[in-house]
Specification:
By secondary structure, this protein is of the alpha+beta class. It contains two helices and two strands. A two-stranded antiparallel sheet has the order 1-2. The chain is rod-shaped, with a radius of gyration of 22 Å. Bound molecules: zinc ion. Zinc ion binds next to helix 1.
Length: 96
């Protein structure tokens, strides 16, 4: 095997050769696209994120986060009640 195919970022794909010959093809893995850091949904159009949490959260998660921040600012909720994965994003909004 050539050294360039020993990398972890290259995967081996089985292909049939002529007759019963086994043959392989090496394909370089592509990177993971932009996805929501809370729910993992794929973010569409995240090339120039200009809105709040653009390129980091999906629309559903960001709207829920903004609502939670409003509740905390209004005094109806505490920051400790927010789940841990979302807490840092809410803290960003509350601290403004
Ligand atoms: Zn999400």
């Amino acid at each position: 095997m050539l050294p360039r195919f020993r990398s972890k970022s290259v995967r081996k794909i089985d292909r049939k050769g002529l007759g019963k010959k086994a043959k392989f093809r090496y394909v370089r893995k592509t990177g993971r696209g932009a996805c929501c850091s809370i729910c993992g949904a794929v973010l569409a159009g995240a090339k120039s994120p200009s809105r709040i949490f653009g390129g980091a959260l999906c629309p559903e998660c960001s709207s829920y986060t903004i609502k939670l921040a409003g509740k905390i600012k209004g005094g109806n909720m505490k920051l400790e009640d927010v789940d841990v994965g979302r807490r840092e994003f809410v803290r960003c909004l509350v601290g403004r």
